[in-house]
Each structure stands twice: as structure tokens, then as C-alpha cells.
Amino acid sequence: MREIAVINGPNLNLLGTREPEIYGSESLQDINQALTTLATELDLQVRFMQSNAEHEIVEYIHRCHHEQISGIIINPAAFTHTSVAIRDALLGTQIPFIEVHLSNIHAREPFRAKSWLSDVAIGTITGLGSQGYAMALRYWAD
Ligand code: CA2
């Protein structure tokens, strides 16, 4: 069975506690629970990680490569706009990935419009809230 890793970056552990008008009212645990249910329907395996530390995300991507994960869904959060290291890890391991953002990064402050990942992603889903993760998971089922 194909296995997909869902990676969330810094501060996304705070989902559901603050700024619901931007990021919605669901917690990360709620989102991951819904994805687990969807993965069963889609006949996919899914694993989750969240970290506030760039190096932990890089090392997790390396682990995904060694453990033959088929694809990654990643919301790199603020690292989207800064991290050449996460870009290099994804490129270096050649794991196909989809970039997801809860908010529309193009409709906010100009610095959020720049992503170090979008041009090497299969695709990017931005601004559709938690549905973006579910849409990305369905991509692999199809
Ligand atoms: O829209 C997204 O998903 C973002 O990746 C979220 C990041 C932001 O830096 C990106 O530009 C867009 C921020 C995540 C912070 O999450 C919080 C959740 C609740 C309360 C405070 C922050």
C-alpha cells in the first residue's frame, strides 16, 4: 500500500487556538484525524509529523526517503518563504511532494508570495483551508 507523509512546519501546532479568521478553527489533531479517515477510504497509508525546527523537517524528509515513502504533503509554514534547506532535501531525495497552505499566500503580505518550494512541487494548493490537505491526499489515490 502506498504511504504518504504529511509534514507541517512551525507554529501549526497552534492551529485552532488563535487567528481562526486566517487559519480556521480546527486543531492540527482534528485535521490529521480527518486525513487518517480519508486515507483509509482511499486505500492509502498516512503518517504525520510537525516540527518547529528546520533541521528536524530536513531529517524527517531524509527518513521518508530511506523508508520509501511514495509522496509528501507539506505545509512548510514560515519556512516556505526562507528555507533553501527544505527545498534541497526534497530535491535531493526526489520524493514527489504537494505544497499546501491554509491561507492564500498570494493575498497576504508580499513576503508570503515567495515560496522556495512551489517551482519544484507537483503542485501547490493555497487558500482552501484544511480541505487543501484532503485534496492533496486524493491526488495520490488517483
Ligand atoms: O497559510 C498557511 O498555511 C501558512 O503556511 C501558515 C504559516 C505562514 O507563515 C505562511 O505564510 C502561510 C503560519 C502558520 C502559523 O500558524 C498559526 C496557527 C494558529 C495561531 C498562530 C499561528
Question: Which helices and strands, and how do they pair?
Answer:
Layout: E1 3-8, H1 20-23, H2 28-42, E2 45-50, H3 54-66, E3 71-75, H4 84-93, E4 97-101, E5 123-126, H5 131-141
The structure holds ligand CA2.
Residues 11-12, 14-15, 17-19, 23, 75, 77-78, 80, 101-103, 105, 112 line the site of ligand CA2.
How would you explain this protein's 3D organization?
The chain is α/β, with parallel strands linked by helices and 142 residues long. The chain is 37% helix and 18% strand. It is built from five helices and five strands, in the order βααβαβαββα. The chain has a five-stranded parallel sheet with strand order 2-1-3-4-5, sandwiched between helices. α3 packs parallel to α4. The longest helix has 15 residues, at 28-42. It is globular. It starts with a strand and ends with a helix. The mean pLDDT is 97. Ligand CA2 binds next to loops.
Task: Using brief descriptors, characterize the structure shown.
142 residues; alpha/beta; binds ligand CA2
